[in-house]
Amino acid sequence: MRDLFATHSRRSFLRDCAAGIGTLALADILQAEGRTAADDPLAPKKPHFPPKAKNVIFLFQEGAPSQMDLFDPKPALKKWNGHPLPPSMTKDLKLAFIKPTAAVLASPREFKPYGQCGMELSDVIPFTAECADDLCLIRSMYSEAFNHHPGQLYLFTGHMIGGRPSMGAWVTYGLGSESRNLPAFVAMQSGSGTSAGSDNWSNGFLPSIYDGTVLRSSGDPILYLSNPDGITNESQRARLDVLRELNQTRLEKTGDQEIASRMHAYELAYRMQTAGPELADLSKETPATLDMYGIKDAKTKSYGTNLLLARRLVERGVRFVLVMQSGWDHHSEINKGLPKLCGQTDKPTAALLKDLKQRGLLDETLVVWGGEIGRTPMSEMRRPEEADNAGRDHHPNGFSLWMAGGGVKGGQVIGKTDELGLTITEDKVELHDLQATILHLLGLDHTRLTYRHLGRDFRLTDVGGQVIPRIMA
Amino acid sequence: MFLSLIPIAMLFAASADRTVDFDRDVRPIFQARCYGCHGPQLQTRGFRLDDGAAAMAGGNSGPAIVSGHADKSKLILRVSGAPGIGTMPPMGKRLTAEEVATLRAWIDQGAKWPQTEETTTAKPRSTHWAFQPVSKPALPDVKNRAWIRNPIDNFILARLEKQKIATSPEADKRTLLRRVSLDLTGLPPTPEETSAFVNDPRADAYERQVDRLLASPHFGEKWARHWLDQARYADSDGYEKDWFRPWAWRWRQWVIDAINHDMPFDEFTIEQIAGDLLPDATVEQKVATGFHRNTLTNREGGVDDAQFKFEDTLDRANTVGTVWLGLSVGCAQCHNHKYDPIPQKDTYQLFAFFDNVEEVNIDAPLPGETGAWMRTRAEYEAKRQALLEEYNVPELQAAWEKDLLFTIANPGKRTDWDLAWDCVLKLTEGGDGGKIVQTPPEKRTQRDQDILTDHFVRNYHFAVGQKKYNELKFKELDQKLTALKEQYPQLSQAMVIEESPKPHPTFLRVRGDYKTPGIEVHPDTLSVLPPLGVQGRAANRLDLARWLVRRDNPLTSRVTVNRLWQEIFGQGIAKSSDDFGTRGEKPSHPELLDWLASEFMDRGWSRKEMIRLMVTSATYRQSSDARPELKDIDPDNRLLARQSRLRLPAELIRDSALEASGLLDPEIGGKSVRPPQPAGVLELGYAGRSGARWVESAGPERYRRGLYVEYLRTTPYPQLANFDAPKASMTTCTRERSNSPLQALNLLNDPVFLEAAQALAVQTVSEPGDFGSRLQRAYERVVARDPDAKEKAKLEAYYTKQQRLLADDLTAQQKLAPYEPPGATRLETAAWTGVASVLLNLDEFITRE
User: Fold this and answer.
1) What is d(CA A103, CA B636) in angstroms, rounded to the nearest whole number?
2) Does the beta-carbon distance from B754 to A202 stay under 8 Å?
3) Between chains, do A228 and B754 touch, taking CB under 8 Å as contact?
4) Å between B122 CA and nearest CA of chain A
5) What average pLDDT does range B69-97 have in this prediction?
6) % of chain B at pLDDT higher than 90
7) For residues B107 and B66, what is the distance between their CA atoms, to the nearest angstrom?
8) Is A113 left (phi over 0), alpha (psi -120 to 50) or beta?
9) Per-residue pLDDT for A253 more than 60?
10) Best of B336, B648, B731, B748 to disrupt the A interface by mutation (most A CBs within 10 Å)?
11) Which of A341, A371, B253, B537 is deepest in the core (most CB within 10 A)?
């Protein structure tokens, strides 16, 4: 029986790790462990075809950001401001809270062209606007859902009803992970919890190794990462050493290779105990970097920290990073709430793009920014006597989302909505198309990435999805 | 369209004077161009053109041929490529103008279908194994008869002998007892139980242990969990606010009781599918229907209730399909099943059984609750009424109700009142708010009235704004009402279903889209299976329930014994235990599966009898050690020349740690509990927004079995999620057994497991003896065996090292040994906590060998 963690090689290996966690090539690590990829369900797998991107950072803007205040200028709304639209225009609208007779709310935002490409963007996202030439802005996103939780399920699992694996789980199932010391799929939260909660990073019916691991902003960065009170690192190591020896004895007795896998998992856990805090420790980042992400500013600190961590995660080979920012559900007070939230998120967003670029990571990292649905051009007034507090209702037909980096053709706008933003007039992009395209950029054919469950071969794109070639460089 | 119109018109004129002959002119077109999808083999969208009656009846979206009116016939619109409607055939060449003209003429001339046409609309037949009647095969003969303990072994051994593979020796007694204890009750044996068994020389000592374990009330807990997986049980709504379901456990309790009493599986089926429809249904029979209340609920504002009603109904039909029939009925939601003989219509016939189901909550008191409740009711009601009056609720609520009724009739006048009405529909707790509001107060039950009043007090601000609401101090009132309720005895409630008094017709949904009704369908079962046989009246859920467990149903018994087998042997005889369709894996031992299925029915559908049979077989009693020589011949142990080592399910890992350390609270049943969980887990769900926090259960409740841990769907308890507990959104028949670093961190560092290690350490040092005898005792508790010399030496070295590391660290000593038991020092206890923690992390500890 081979000893997978013969003390000598393990010790020297751990020393190597401590010297350069995240920089070790995976093949070397596997070799040091005496393992092959076949033993490990998270070992990197060959994609279906050569990929354009290796990793994904999904900047999920939870609650439905208002496209006509951010990305899709609608000057024609000014003409209708305060007045209801004629029934002929609203008869097919599906709305959550308001009625079709609700008055139109023009956007107070100023739009102007940015970058070489002249992409028109709103004045509330000046930092993101500087990156216009890197963005592929889609103004014609479409979802079948028109509420948050079903919408989030649709965006991340391809189906409005719960229980299926999320995008990050599918991607790690398809590609495995380059990281041995950190989870393959990491989720982070800014603001309060999202409607779909763990459904957004769930493994669904896939094995739990594909579940997203939450990188927490307080307490242990990863749940149960630190030693219990009273157990020092030395005693933790001693605990693991004797555990390994005892498991080895059992392996020899029973011959069950699952024990070898478990021993491996304990070593990974131990390494994670070092790699986790190392990841979360931003002290080695330059002041300029911290500044760029807005980490010193209370306003941008939460989101900025998560975005810097996202960069550090992909640097360390983590396959899929989901950053969730809640708070975009502006049913009321949109003209106060939206600029405020942009103030918290815009600067870090641009910082991430620039930082990835300057480190040469943007080419291999796909960045996606978007919410689950969009908002109505009509106003929502929860109390009619408080007109200043108007917001916007849900609108899944023609919302905006952008992509950048790995394999994406920047500086272009895809799709159009009508002059009031009620319907899509050109190049409708359904969520399944977006999912198919994301998988395609990663070298995966969305129709071939399947998992048999309850007698059916499920896939992220359910029964739909078409890759959108125009998105790609 | 433009292209096709003119020539058709011309050709039509040309052929109109000629009488079209069906056999000569029309059938060849159908045969050549349509039968591929609408013929004897396949009836896409429920439409078939090889049979006169079926063709005239039309497909899932209604008639396609209107006799005498070609221009009103969808068939013509389709084949002529009319805009806005898919052209037929969808692929390949279009019909020629002449062919279209012939079909037009045939329809205009009355669409005569000759009587001689041979009808082939017989039920679809299938040669697929799972659809054939269950037979009882004769027991195969074997050479090594001495090995046989019961008929199961005949089937297993015959196959092994055929392949010239030897069986494995019987596992040693300790392994065997630990195995069967975990399999039957989910708890490891105590040292006393192990020693009693080891020292019992009687020939039937093992069978006696099996009897003891089958009679244990923990049996019901272990086997309920497996059923809960299939029923997608959870303690919360599942969507957005993911509200806690305070009474979900009442159905779980029913399951535990039913399994403990070995309720025959046919009865178990009937009560859960249609207990409410049984003559003079008892409360418990109604509680059983809670099976169907495990569907998810979406209370998001503005959600389309029709959509979620549709999804719930479909989920109920699909779940019945998978759980009882092992068929992916849901695959035919949008179209005919791609692989199995399940037309789309069949799915909606099954759907129709549940289409008029209403969700209600009922009082379902447990023994002992009613007396106290009755005695205090009047006093409680009086106090409640006084409180309501103090805050002027009766008057305000009456006005609110009046305004709501106006809003219902006049939507869009005031957004705030529209919202208030939506909230009545979505946010009423424990009842159907919309229905109650629209029932005149004098016709409401007291219970309904209270439900509406509670909603009013809690949600009045949606109607009148927060400012007014604050002035009324309704939040304070709400708290007082809750406090008052908690002071008085309550009756347990149950979430159940019942049949709507005003049933509506059911329609197939074209392409599975709830907004697009197709043809009307009636409750019926799958056409490939034996007919329901209900004549002269509409079939209902009770008919379905009884049909599921009818002797001629080829699936229920097979599917069910296969899942019992899966729990006992780690995988089913048919491995894809959720798919008995044509794409599922064929059974490894089909005759054994049939024998077990018929035996199950012969033995009155007794689960305990079947489980007894399985665990007393020689097959089961084999050692689980690997057989290197079989690695290539039988890598997945399908032939069962040995037992399998299986990682324990999530809940059983918790249970084992609590049991081995003496912490377990063995109470059976009752409400869900909250063991310690780190801050920030619940907060990642939407519930965290409204300030919901995980409040740890006080007292012994925090040491209850994993089965009782509150499972919130959007923020599941981490230890359960880490070890592959199902997500409970859809039915789960087979759990994954993954192996991850997060599992290791969980067992190493979770305070729950550290506490178990501390308790195990205290137990260990409280007994006299040296390190060796104490270790022996601890090993017995944890893995039901003695450590060998090598293990002892390693752990002793570790123990000594721990003592050395901890000697000068008093803080660490206190953390690891918060309690200093008599007869041991704190240092010893702390070092033993380390040893105990190692034991609780052993692969062997979380594995059934």
Assistant:
1) 65
2) no
3) yes
4) 27
5) 83
6) 75
7) 7
8) beta
9) yes
10) B748
11) A371
Structure tokens at A328: 């975009």
How close B233 comes to chain A (CA, Å)?
A: 13
> How much helix, strand and coil, in percent to the nearest 5, is found in chain B?
55, 5, 40
DSSP assignments along B116-138, one per residue: TSPP--SPP----GGGSPP--PP
Closest CA to A345 of A134, A191, A187, A135: A191
| Of A5, A55, A49, A324, nearest in space to A177 by CA | A55
Q: Which of A82-96, A215-229, A355-369 has the highest mean pLDDT?
A: A355-369
Do B685 and A230 count as a contact with CB atoms less than 8 A apart? no
In this model, does residue A26 exceed pLDDT 50?
Answer: no
In this structure, are strands A450-453 and A456-459 parallel, antiparallel, or unpaired? antiparallel
**Which class for B251: exposed (0-12), middle (13-18), buried (19 or more C-beta within 10 A)?**
buried
pLDDT at residue number A17: 39
Helix H segments across B231-343? Answer: 249-260, 265-274, 283-288, 305-325
C-beta neighbour count of A234 within 10 angstroms: 10
Residue of A94, A180, A235, A326 to mutate, interface with B, max B Cβ within 10 Å: A235
Least Cα separation, residue B778 to chain A (angstroms): 15
Q: What is the ipTM of this complex?
A: 0.88
pLDDT of residue A384 exceeding 60: yes
- B721 CB neighbours in chain A (<8 A) are 198, 208, 211
pLDDT digits (tens, 9 = 90+) for B472-511: 999 999 999 999 999 999 999 999 999 999 999 999 998 8
Would you call A195 and B841 a contact, using CB atoms and an 8 Å cutoff?
Answer: no
Q: Do B240 and A218 touch (CB under 8 A)?
A: no
Q: What is the pLDDT of residue B146?
A: 97
Between the two ends of chain A, the Cα-to-Cα distance in Å is 51
Helices B590-602 and B607-615: crossing angle in degrees, nearest 10, is 140
Question: Cβ of A99 and B805 within 8 Å?
Answer: no
pLDDT tens track for B724-744: 999 999 999 999 999 999 999
What is the domain partition of chain B in residue ranges?
8-108, 145-167+554-626, 173-216, 264-362+499-538, 374-488, 751-848
pLDDT of residue A39: 63
Cβ distance of B680 and A149 shorter than 8 Å: no
- Torsion, Cα of B213, B216, B221, B222 (10° steps): 0
Q: How confident is the model at residue A28 (pLDDT cuts 50, 70, 90)?
A: low
Q: Are A222 and A247 in contact (CB under 8 A)?
A: no
Express each pLDDT in B193-217 by its tens digit: 999 999 999 999 999 999 999 999 9
B738: chain A residues, CB-CB within 8 Å? 41, 207-209
Chain A: closest CA distance from residue B67 (Å): 34
Over range A199-212, report the average pLDDT. Answer: 93
A95 touches A88 (CB < 8 A): no
A222, two tokens: 């990863």
pLDDT in tens, B671-706: 999 999 998 898 889 888 877 889 999 899 999 999
**pLDDT tens figures, B367-401:** 999 999 999 999 999 999 999 999 999 999 999 99
Chain B nearest C-alpha distance from A86 (Å): 15
Placement of tokens 């048919």 in the chain? B574
Contact assignment for A265 to B790 by CB distance below 8 Å: no
Task: Name the residue facing B311 among A97, A161, A261 (closest C-beta).
Answer: A161
pTM, rounded to two decimals: 0.89
Instruction: Write out chain B residues lying below 8 Å of A189, CB-based.
Output: 684
Backbone dihedral angles phi then psi of residue B623, each to the nearest 5 degrees:
-70, 150
- Sign of the torsion formed by the C-alpha atoms of A343, A346, A348 and A350: negative
